[in-house]
Amino acid sequence: MHNSTVVGVDIGGSHITAAQVNVKTSEVVESTRMRRSINSRQGASAIIGEWSEVIRDACGLPANASKKIGIAMPGPFDYQNGISFIKGQNKYDLLYGLNIKHLLAASLNLEVENIIFYNDAASFLRGEACAGAGKSYSRLIGITLGTGLGTSVFYDNHAEDAELWNSPFKESIAEDYLSARWLLKRYTEFTGESISDVKQLASLWDTNNVSRDVFNEFGENLGLFLNGFIESKKPEAVILGGNIAKALNLFKESLHANLKAEYQTIPILQAKLGEEAALIGASSLWYV
Description:
By secondary structure, the chain is of the alpha/beta class. It has 8 helices and 15 strands. Strands 1, 2, 3, 4, 5 and 8 form a 6-stranded mixed β-sheet that branches. Strand 10 (149-155) and strand 11 form a beta hairpin.
């Protein structure tokens, strides 16, 4: 394969996606994309085995032993050495303390040096900066809104995890107010009824006042949270990703209304690349 092609991998709490990425053009080779659901509570050997199968299927490993791999991985994780410290999150507990880099290299018959890990939130923002919504900006902050809250910063062509998910906010921490579970819980508090997911909640917007109230309150929370993040990092723009960001039009007005006046001219942009952002971001570390 052409030496500008790197294997990008995105590992989530319940899935793995892998594809070849042209790091010179920041484009995913769509025909190579593979995705599989993963039981993240199974044993280490089973998890490593399934990850390896997906990578092989996407990229023809280990036939080409010179292939470079960039992996977007949730934390806590020692990204330089490849050791997992994920524990108590109902995912990958049995990988705790293991050297994932060495285990994967052995499974794929690769040199350890051919595998690098990158924080998933940082991978998302780096990908959007390279080829997505942030392409026109040199200093960005990123927010991923989904099952949990991810925060990241991009500057000087470098992205890093801002680690603000557990920062103090209102009566608890930020993630407790800026996640899918808050939206669903808040709807239940108002109505006494349970709802399956954020997509269903969004579908009620046109006909249900409670849905509108919940999204408006969510936007208020996000605006208040962003005030501190913007003040700290001084971005040129904000990129919102994750499944909740797909409903940005439902809470964008209340978000803006709760930003400080001096921040209301900063663009709040919806991510463009979806899952591709992490693949591009993680693999781009190989491009110098």
